[in-house]
Write a structure and sequence with these properties.
The complex is a heterotrimer of chains A (629), B (284) and C (145). Chain A is mostly helical. Chain A is 72% helix and 3% strand. Chain A contains 26 helices and five strands. In chain C, strand 1 (9-14), helix 1 and strand 2 (41-42) form a beta-alpha-beta unit. Chain C is globular and about 45 Å long. Classes of the chains: A mainly alpha (629), B mainly alpha (284), C alpha/beta (145).
Amino acid sequence: MMLSLIVFLIAFPLIIALILGAVRKSSIYPVVIYPASVILMIASLGLIWHGAKAKASLFPAHTNWVEPTILIIEILIAVYLLLLAFKRKDMVVTGFVLVQTALLLAFHYGPGKEMHVAANLFMDQFSVLMGLIVGVIGGLIAVYAVGYMQDFHHHHHEVKDNRPQFFSLIFVFLSAMFGFCFSNNLFWMFLFWEITTVCSFLLIRYKQDEQSIANAFWALRWNLLGGLAFLVGIIFLYLNTHVAEMDKMLLLPKMLILLPVSLLCFAGMTKSAQLPFSSWLVGAMVAPTPVSALLHSSTMVKAGVYLVLRFASVLEGTTVGLLVAMVGGVTFLVASFICISQNDAKKVLAYSTIANLGLVILCAGIGSPEAVWAGMLLIVFHAISKGLLFLCVGSVENQTGSRQIEDMSGLVVRMPKVAVMIMIGIAGMFLAPFGMLISKWVVLRAVILVNPLISFLLIFGSAATLFFWVKWLGKVIMVEREYKTNESTVVKAQWLVLGSLAAMTILICAFFAPVAGFLVEPYIANIYHQVVSLGSGNMIIVAIMLTMVCMFPLTFLDYGKGVKVVDAYLGGANTGNKSMQFLGSLRDVKDMDMKNYYLQDYFSEARLMRLGVLVGILFVIAVVLIGAI
Amino acid sequence: MSLFTAILYVVLAPLVGGLISGLDRKISARMQGRIGPPILQPFYDVGKLFKKENLVVRRSQNMFMTFFVILSVFTGALFFAGGDLLLVIFALTLAGVFFVLGGYKSSSPYSFIGAQRETLQMMSYEPAIIIVAVAMFMVTGSFQVKDIVSYPRPLIMDLPGVFIAFLFILPIKFRKSPFDLATSHHAHQEIVKGITTEFSGRTLALIEIAHWYEYVFVLGVGYLFFANSVWVGLLMTFLIFELLLIIDNATARVRWQWMLVGSWGMAFLAGGVNIIFLMMRGYP
Amino acid sequence: MSSISKSPWVIHYDGSSCNGCDIEVLAALMPRFDVERFGVINTGNPKHADILLLTGSINEQNKPVVQNIYNQMPEPKVVLALGICATSGGIFRECYNVMGGADKAVPVDLYVPGCAIRPEAIIDAVVQALGILEKKRAAMNAAAV
């Protein structure tokens, strides 16, 4: 039953992708994508039923046609990428693809010939959690994308309308993500890993202008490097131990698998855009916003941290683990700092994504049960809030034509509903009773027990987080002059998506004890034979805080009672028409604009990035080297 | 340390905080060779503000401040109930965020600058105050205030560096020179009145009361360093307050760069050295 | 005496003048006179102020400014015209640009002559203004009931 559900989750999006790719008519998008997404969401909710089971389930494979098919697909992908890379004269990509394919073929026809895999697919609470995120968030974003892309092409005539490819790639990607989460066979995992890379590459260059193509190749380069590390890691593992399965691998003695694990961590770090690889994810923001939301914040980049977090129990207490944690911590610190100096909303979201992925990597590197608990919940909370924020920014951009944070002043009047969603999303990212901060709190406690000095990265990074979110939030709620309300570009289906993501942001905080108790804690109990939870006393306090914050809308009952509205103080030079206009010295009317602090001298992107890349390279090399020793 | 002390805090903190504020003005006046206002002057001010008209620029601006007051009280109550120190800090941040948003919402250039500077101040003091919590955890093995208070040795013996970092950020929380960038008290002005420029009447009175609650809470954190004996603790808390007044009267306001670099540097260096020392000694 | 008269917060505006009275207002706020004894604070912000201290005369340029500041003060509020220029226009009265005293722009509660006005007179005026504040507050209450 469960096996067929998994197979359905992998196969169904593929079929939809085929339909969408084959029928090139724009009228079918709502007809096909809405029901397909709903079915996917319901099917992935069906996974929860498994969550109650204590142990991981393994599904033995009986097929012998799958292995050749996989090889063929991999070769096809390689050929396709080679063609593109040749045309572009990108030698790095060409090199990576050639080496990768050669290695794969050599392995397949050499030592891997007698490879026997007992169970190709498996499922435990962690993969159920990931499957849920992919299914629910992915489904919602796909629904949102229908309206968004229509609007996008309405505004951007210079971009060639290639929506069939776009939507079918989205569904191929969803299929690959499900495959990745439920694969036990590491070579299958690698295939799905590569498919996500290719989907990401094709979606980044969707606009087909020079910058998009350049950024796409840049992203491809790093992801292929990660793929190579992945491949080397699993081949090395197989050669040494004759194991090609995740479940068996985790049962092996630590010392034996440390090098493969460090290589896989390396792969995970490239996918999750940790320093020094972060630049590809920032470049990927040229893609249409649903792509950024789906691939580059909610799901695909989560595959990287998922992989690293899987090995948390191996990393715990090792030097490699400490170094992995350092990479995550430094990434969190540097990316949070860079956010301060950014005005482009998507860039802020991108860097904050990198930062939060760093936090999860930090958890994985620490590897204690508390840290893993926090890391898994971080993945969930971040996926929801970030998905919401990206989609909101997409709506704002379609409506107003700008995604600069400075242009968002008065959004609360101009686009009230979207503004409220943005506020919920931002609150979900950094405010106290919401999930992200609760997880951060647990991370801090876990880190102190291992190494208090690492907690400094967390402490200073968090302070920066506070600054850039607050100033964005402030910009959204301030009202500089009189505006007209207009949210016409957001269609009904999109409201449904935004609304459900916003509701999820709040509800998952209210019910996060059951969520954690149902999926996260059993997983940790299985791995560590230890029970982790927040403690009931603290839970009550958190609940009180959440109740208080949720009561905030109630204060609108008091809206404007017993007050007199006057103009703002402008040294008496107001023009007196309820706007931020004032009289200059020659009685000329001047407009006032208020701009946020960006602290460029202290948190400049270029300088911090240089520093971060340098430190990142050192640590990443150390991870692999020490793993080898 | 229980619900009882929390209720005691909610009832008494405005009285104590108001008296502290009055004492502050009296002592400051004496330092400047003046007679100074009556000790109860802050209460007169707040009483007067309640009788004044409530002017706003944007109708919803007062709601943020009302929430700021509620959350400030909550923060202190959580602290005095002996709760988790990290949670207390998060509640403090939450309160601070509402304060800043109130400033943003009022949409005037002066409150806008004040709001940004307040955010900068929050960013400046947060690391130091979290390091206080972390270091106290490393010594006592618990984040719960009730456990920290009952630790048998004075924490200052183990945490001198952290204490210095804490002292450094204290003027920020008390809105005193040299770090009264966002808004300040008494006759000090800060680009008009910074974040509170557009608030008047009842709302301004509530903000003032919230600051009194914060005074007591922040001094309570200072008390933790000497908590093993009540009288020594209270005496030292008073001395911290005195030191604060001397610093306030002896320094000029600095630019935000100094504040940010200074408080982060202090937290990093003094706090860091202290924590390395604790690590070398071994901790639970 | 209620709290409203124990905490008079002032704001100070200098119109078209020789700046003599302006300086005297600042002198009155100095430690020598220590007006904080009476709870007086110079707020520099109309939204927090109870008493508007006007010095200097009113001209075309500063009339709307004074009116704006006045309108931005919360009730109850008192306006003091300090110095001869603020009471009547003083020696600038006949200038082509000068309209006259402070009452050309806003309703004045108390006229305090002097050229330049002395700090003692200013303090005395503020203390008298407290009584007016009380009365206005009482009137506000009566209107509310």
